[in-house]
Write a structure and sequence with these properties.
Largest sheet: none
Radius of gyration: 12 Å
Strand content: under 5%
Helix content: 40-55%
Order of helices and strands: HHHH
Structural class: mainly alpha
Length: 66
């Protein structure tokens, strides 16, 4: 499984090699939160953080067994 073979000290942004632009100024707290979570190391994500990212279909290959 992919998530068994990566550095969990890296963020989703680092693992994907894709940097999202900042969220628009009128974004919802959900959108702003997901943008911020993409920058946090995977090992530091809480259960609630994982739920939020998975619910938004963000970073799934990296979160499968985190």
């Amino acid at each position: 499984m992919l998530s068994d073979f990566f550095d969990k000290g890296k963020s989703i942004e680092e693992l994907e090699g894709v940097r999202w632009p900042p969220p628009p100024s009128d974004s919802t707290s959900l959108v702003r939160g997901v943008h911020a979570l993409r920058k946090r190391p995977v090992r530091e994500l809480s259960v609630e953080d994982l739920r939020r990212l998975i619910g938004q279909d963000v970073g799934l290959p990296w979160l499968w067994t985190s």
